[in-house]
């Protein structure tokens, strides 16, 4: 005997999610069976609704339930600065900071020749199009500090600099609250390189 | 700005599951947005269906989509032996072994005075009722090898033994493939205690 069909379907569903293997999936599925019926229905509805109602903003490609998204629509935000990020989650992280008042552009990926991802596969052409109406004066490239993110930043910088728009890259260095002792060499050398006068 | 509402609802849904905190929930939610629409719908349906279609078997309390469950209905199985387990997952584990041909009784818990769980809160009264028609000759108590499981086993044994039904407990000892060096003292002492002649 295996699991009854409804439960094995649920286990399969959980197993499609990242980082969830057969054991965790079974544990979660059995947990769901003990949950309140109402909560399970809400969760099921939330899944379907999230997929159905969310799209990418036609301007900045950020995930949104309105188009254009609330950030692109917000008239109080500075339209002269665009922060380029790899992922919608990065926008959320930036917004939590509550300091950046410009706009965003979400690439949904980074250039990675190894994986066959070129500039046309992420939203770089859309970004270039956004720069044509001359309102944008600065591009802050906040792609991830790894090989793909750096390559993407370099690519964008080379493409955009000739147009006269300022292109900057977020600083690399020691995380606040971190410990110098435990920092890796590359981070440390970046921290020294980017030192600022006090 | 926070997450758009459909996604924050989905994150909340994931956070209700055990072992999933806000960061993992957000990661899973964003993953869902990138999944195929069809897969997401199937998953949502599986959630609701599992909750709606599964009940506990009225005989053995195992999770099932038919009542009585397939094991209780199976005429080829030995009705003289009942294996008592704490959880439906334990039935699945036993069935994977493909050796035990008796029936089961799922307690859905174990006696735990600390948590206020007594014999009436788990399915012990149902078990006693099952023993009354004299078909059952042996009870194999396969509750977990921890304090609650042992207490439950002792309780059941004391209750059932006077009726003349044989009560046995699954063996404790070194797991197959394990290493004596890494075994804890209690397991090792149980392994010595339960030694068998070769």
From TrEMBL, chains A, B:
Pfam families: RecR_C, RecR_HhH, RecR_ZnF, Toprim_4. It comes from the Bacteria. The keyword Metal-binding applies. Keywords: DNA damage, DNA recombination, DNA repair, Metal-binding, Zinc, Zinc-finger. GO terms for molecular function: DNA binding; zinc ion binding. PANTHER family: RECOMBINATION PROTEIN RECR. PROSITE patterns: RECR, TOPRIM. Gene3D superfamilies: 3.30.60.80, 3.40.1360.10, 6.10.250.240, RecR Domain 1. One of its GO terms (biological process) is DNA recombination. This is Recombination protein RecR. InterPro entries: DNA_Rcmb_RecR (IPR000093), Rcmb_RecR (IPR023627), Rcmb_RecR_Znf (IPR015967), TOPRIM_dom (IPR006171), TOPRIM_RecR (IPR034137). Belongs to the RecR family. Residues 80-175 form the Toprim domain. Signal peptide: none annotated. A zinc finger (C4-type) spans 57-72. May play a role in DNA repair. It seems to be involved in an RecBC-independent recombinational process of DNA repair. It may act with RecF and RecO. HAMAP family: RecR.
